Amino acid sequence: MNQRNGKRTGARAGAVALLLAGGMLLTACGGSGSSDGSSTADKRSGAHPPQGATGGGQPAPDAVAPEEGRQSEESGDTARPDVAAPDYLSTFALDVDTASYGYTRSTLGDGAMPDPVNIRPEEFVNSFRQGYQRPKGNGFSVSVDGARIGEGSGGSDWSLLRVGLATKAAPPDSERPPAALTFVVDISGSMAGPGRLGLVKESLNILTDELRDDDSVSVVTFSDEAETRLPMTRLEGNRNKIRDAVDEMDPAQSTNVEAGIERGYEESVKGHRKGVNNRVVLLSDALANTGDTNADSILKRIDSARREYGITLFGVGVGSDYGDAFMERLTNRGDGHTTYVGDAEQARKVFVDQLPAHIELTARDAKAQVAFDRKTVEQFRLIGYENRKVADEDFRDDSVDGGEVGPGHTVTALYAVRLREGASGTVAEATVRWLDPKTRKAYEESGSVRTGAIDGDLWGGGAPQRLQVAAVAAYFADTLRGGDLPGTPALGELASRATKLAGETDDSAVRKLATAIGQAEALRNGTEPETGGDTGEGEIG
């Protein structure tokens, strides 16, 4: 149940945050600081530092109606008295990536277990509909709820807390602003396999049919070197010219992502159109082996173009061998996000059904900060977001990079929370801060939850179905990467719960989740898994 907080967070005694090795945040009363003394972000590259050891920053603001938002004091209009920092802060940049889940399902469908290093739980969770209430205007709605994990799962004294953020639904295609898209296509030798360059060409032809006459497209290809196949060209009267440029692409030699990205941004700057969505779209298996293969240094070289012209990077991953971590790093630093396309059905979903969410922006540099109340909370764990953490004191520093979010997106953060025995009152207050893409003004929105709203049994019918889906996805991801979340069910039980939820929700994406869990269980047990099909991801929204 969602609770609005009508009061400003009061002064609280000191803030404590621990950063544990392995990347999972675990904060406990009386804990000491991190051994990593770094608390300052690399403000040029947008690097995300570890969670701050002192938990600095200002308290979360009053919650207001989501359609109105709350303009920050830095933007201009209200003064706020100095107060002590709230206890137990958790701060991270928003993330709408889903590629980790899509690639995991593709790998399992091929009869292999994914590499644990490529498992990011937040991308599993964010692949599924959550049903949050949408804001009426621009910005975010904030929902906070949860449930007790329960006796049967080995986590009887733990609860699962869900922080949900949602943007307004995407407008009809006819109402979106025009787009100027530069496609940077990998034509290296590794793209010759099934489900790679052929699928990319099919995807681009689908998109050519879908884009409007007032949209513009540029095409760059790269292997050992980069080549401009088509300068920025309006769609009106030129669709056949675009198709010809796509059809002429054939696999070549090495994978010089550096050359492709640099040429792509050059073409995007040349074809930049004011007042439209200017975006570079990288389509690749991201197996860089020539030129600079460091994502940070590649993005540094195009940093001025990225910032001055507001050009964002959208990564579309393909192929059974896929450089997931490299692609994710590139798009994080490029103010964008990633998805994974496994077949023509998923390509149509990404480039037709979900197109506005992938090329438009509702919010820039969006960050979330969750303040836990030490009077009710003994411990908490943030599930995932390890490489999206922001120092607590940088929450309201708008020069520190956050996440970019489009229309129709939802972002979910799950926490495992241990309440104090007999605790009653506020558990946590969640605040999201973002910049308006056009005006660059900062806004905030908050929501909170009390102990009575998370008393239901997660699996016993007392929790919302969509919270249960999020829990299954998170537990699945944590199991695949060898984690130890409180109350984690065995894979067989997770598969059964997913199957039951798929029937209750009539959601094909949840049914595919059940299939993936079953495949993982079979591989773990040394039995023959169900293979093939279901290579796409979950849903936006």
UniProtKB/TrEMBL annotation:
The keyword tRNA processing does not apply. The keyword Signal applies. Residues 67-80 have a biased composition (Basic and acidic residues). Residues 31-84, 520-541 are annotated as: Disordered. Transmembrane segments: none annotated. SMART domains: VWA. Residues 180-355 form the VWFA domain. Pfam families: VWA (PF00092), vWF_A (PF12450), YfbK_C (PF12034). Residues 1-28 form the signal peptide. It comes from the Bacteria. Keywords: Signal. This is von Willebrand factor type A domain-containing protein. It comes from Streptomyces microflavus. The lineage of its organism: Bacteria, Bacillati, Actinomycetota, Actinomycetes, Kitasatosporales.
